[in-house]
Amino acid sequence: MDLLDPPAQLVEGKMAGDLILVVDDERDTRKLVRIALERNGHRVHEAATGEEALALVAKEQYELVILDVMMPRLSGFDVCRRLKSDDRTKDVPVIFLSAKGQATDIDEGLDVGGIIYIVKPFSIKELAAQVNEVLTKTRASPPSSDSPAL
Predict the structure, then answer these.
(1) What does each C-alpha distance from 1 to 38, 97, 112, 114, 125 come to in angstroms?
(2) Residue 144: inside a domain, yes or no?
(3) Is the pLDDT of residue 110 over 90?
(4) N or C: which end of the chain has fewer CB within 10 A?
(5) pTM as predicted
(6) 45 beta partners
(7) Does 34 reside within a domain?
(8) Domain of 71?
(9) Confidence of residue 138 (pLDDT cuts 50, 70, 90)
(10) For residues 67 and 95, what is the distance between their CA atoms, to the nearest angstrom?
């Protein structure tokens, strides 16, 4: 699908599809990712800080979180640790999207609970493909046995 294609079908005036949270302190990155994901039929919320992300996660149930690592005050690693330590959000997949691309950074991202680590600059088509793959796998797999029923 091309980024210039019309958006996915609307259902009763709202975008149908999985709800994804994009967290990045760079507004242009958030906008690029949001537009691409919406064009692929997903609903997207944005957060500019780790604190804002945690506040949104407390109010909404997201199917996926895309996290930058380097953010002021609360890093993406810290946000992921908090998500994974909360019974309500521990099964939500996390994709890291970061300019920090050293092997130690990638290892830490995976160690704290991320399932994919994409280094900036990145291909928006590759990110969209990874998102679709993760969501397809998530739908096919039941939540962990100690997760509360929703």
Answers:
(1) 11, 21, 32, 26, 9
(2) no
(3) yes
(4) C
(5) 0.84
(6) 21
(7) yes
(8) 14-136
(9) confident
(10) 6
Q: What is the CATH number of the domain that holds 108?
A: 3.40.50.2300
For the record, the structure tokens of 99 come out as 């300019």
List, for residues 5-64, the tens digit of each pLDDT value. Answer: 444 444 443 445 899 999 999 999 999 999 999 999 999 999 999 999 999 999 999 999
Largest separation between any pair of C-alpha atoms in the chain? 46
Map residue 30 onto helix, strand or coil: helix
Q: How far apart are CA 60 and CA 140, in angstroms?
A: 22
- Top pLDDT among 36 and 147 is at 36
Say if 146 falls within a structural domain.
no
Domain count for the chain, please give it. 1
Other Cβ atoms less than 10 A from the Cβ of 21: the count is: 23
